[in-house]
Backbone:
């Protein structure tokens, strides 16, 4: 998957040794695709002639035709959609729901494999959603003294 993606993304780099001609087959398939060719010619207002087409457009077409490369290319977007980066007061960083704000808390729940983000609302909490926080993901922050655990109500 990565190899396919890398080959397409670096095809126009002379140091890669790949060359744009490696994209010719994917380019022919992409140009013959009615939806993709419409997007290129009408929405992007570009000529469908591979000779005059910019390398960036050729790479975009090849990326859309190559299933493994497209999967690798779009996967980070899929997992980061409606997510935001954060740093905790104690220096941990992570990704969480875009609705989060200062003062929200990371919570660990018995039986869940990922930490959750909560927002206190009086004596209760609103569950914002799961978070990715290195240093929390493998149970590293789970207390050894279970008497330090607390109970709360989630709205």
Residues:
């Amino acid at each position: 998957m990565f190899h396919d993606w890398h080959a397409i993304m670096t095809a126009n780099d002379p140091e890669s040794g790949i060359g744009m001609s490696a994209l010719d087959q994917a380019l022919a398939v992409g140009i013959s695709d009615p939806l993709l060719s419409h997007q290129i010619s009408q929405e992007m207002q570009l000529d469908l002639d591979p000779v005059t087409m910019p390398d960036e457009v050729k790479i975009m077409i090849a990326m859309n035709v190559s299933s493994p490369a497209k999967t690798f290319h779009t996967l980070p977007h899929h997992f980061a959609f409606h997510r935001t980066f954060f740093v905790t007061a104690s220096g941990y960083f992570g990704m969480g729901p875009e609705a989060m704000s200062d003062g929200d808390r990371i919570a660990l729940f018995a039986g869940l494999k990922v930490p959750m983000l909560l927002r206190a609302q009086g004596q209760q909490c609103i569950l914002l959603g799961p978070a990715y926080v290195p240093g929390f993901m493998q149970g590293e922050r789970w207390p050894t003294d279970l008497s330090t655990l607390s109970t709360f109500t989630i709205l």
In short: The radius of gyration is 23 Å. The CA atoms of residues 62 and 92 lie 39 Å apart. The mean pLDDT is 86. Residues 2-79 form one domain.
